[in-house]
Design goal:
oxidoreductase, 329 residues, globular, Phenol_Hydrox, oxidoreductase activity, acting on paired donors, with incorporation or reduction of molecular oxygen, NAD(P)H as one donor, and incorporation of one atom of oxygen, RNR-like, mainly alpha, Phenol hydroxylase, 0% strand, Ribonucleotide Reductase, subunit A, 12 helices, single chain
Length: 329
């Protein structure tokens, strides 16, 4: 008996899911990012309005004054969905872990004089609490924003902020030989030191803002746009100029996250600004207002450097960035 086995190629009836096919047609294969993000949020058949804000539906475009024909225009240029986000951060964390291990093995922390360590503690330890606040503000965007494209990326940003806080904790414990009293002092400085109070007030003022896009502009675009270059990047560079490279290696992880997040923030703010003149005017007004507040909040914290132009230069760089994405600054 002879048995012949032949290959049969079965042509799929369609190349993607129904919600993608509604947008692009049956024959357009979609990326995993598009499948994960487009129209993932429920839009109808809500049974109850939230008791805390009965004037809105659970997901409601009226929670912000920004108007979009399609909130799924706010796509993430990094194409982050769960798997790509987790694998990217895992690789970055592995590289950061190697830096920590190298510094421990070579005993590089012992080469930092105690007076320099005090400066590092004074500026980096209170920042743990700042990034906890950034996490909360981004979770507020997630709970009040509209569309999976915006909310999923904001949730990743919130997780990154929590990661930054934990990363700073590891740095302080490594430098102090696991002295937890350093963390307590940092919390006390955040709560009571006069030079940290303007920043704390600005952060907490954003916590009571209800418009999710205003939170995104004030917290992520403006305040982080000034703070990370000032208190992470330039702070580390100043230590390098004085012969101490260790902190620069340890904080590289936070600087990389900021550079990567700028691609997402600039992209979606540009899309919103191009949607209409009204949107552009609102975004520009928010940006100018929070630029002034952030500048005043961070001025007392730029005293680690003798360069009095360090904060004005960072602000000028941010203003040029905002102009580049179309805002009227």
């Amino acid at each position: 008996m002879e048995l012949n086995i032949a290959n049969i190629e079965i042509e799929p009836k369609r190349h993607t899911f129904g919600h993608i096919a509604k947008r692009f047609g049956e024959d357009r294969p979609a990326s995993r990012y598009e499948e994960a993000v487009y129209d993932g949020q429920a839009t109808e058949n809500f049974h109850y309005r939230p008791t805390y804000e009965p004037e809105f539906e659970i997901y409601d475009v009226k929670r912000t004054v920004i108007k979009m024909d399609d909130w799924y225009k706010l796509l993430d240029p990094r194409k982050f969905h769960y798997m790509t986000y987790v694998s990217t951060r895992a690789n970055q964390n592995a590289a950061s872990k190697r830096n920590f291990e190298l510094i421990e093995e070579r005993l590089l922390t012992q080469m930092i004089p105690e007076d320099i360590k005090e400066i590092i503690y004074n500026y980096l330890t209170p920042l743990r609490h700042y990034f906890y606040g950034v996490n909360l503000n981004n979770l507020s965007i997630v709970s009040r924003g509209y569309g999976t494209a915006l909310n999923s990326a904001s949730l990743f940003y919130a997780s990154d902020s929590l990661g930054n806080s934990q990363h700073l904790t590891k740095i302080v414990l490594l430098l102090s030989d696991n002295n937890v009293e350093r963390l307590e002092k940092g919390k006390n400085d955040w709560m009571n030191d006069p030079k940290w109070q303007p920043l704390r007030k600005t952060l907490e003022d954003i916590m009571v803002v209800k418009d999710p896009i205003e939170i995104l502009v004030s917290q992520n675009l403006i305040l982080n746009g000034l703070l990370v270059p000032l208190l992470i990047t330039q702070f580390s560079n100043t230590l390098v100029q004085n012969g101490h490279i260790t902190v620069s290696l340890l904080t590289e992880f936070i600087s990389q996250l900021q550079e990567e997040s700028i691609k997402w923030l600039d992209s979606i703010v540009k899309v919103m600004a191009e949607e209409s003149e009204e949107n552009n005017n609102i975004l520009s007004k928010w940006s100018k207002s929070y630029l002034l507040k952030a500048d005043e909040a961070l001025a007392p914290l730029s005293d680690y450097s003798d360069n009095t132009d360090i904060l004005p230069q960072i602000r000028l760089d941010l203003e040029n960035r905002l102009k580049k994405i179309g805002l009227k600054i």
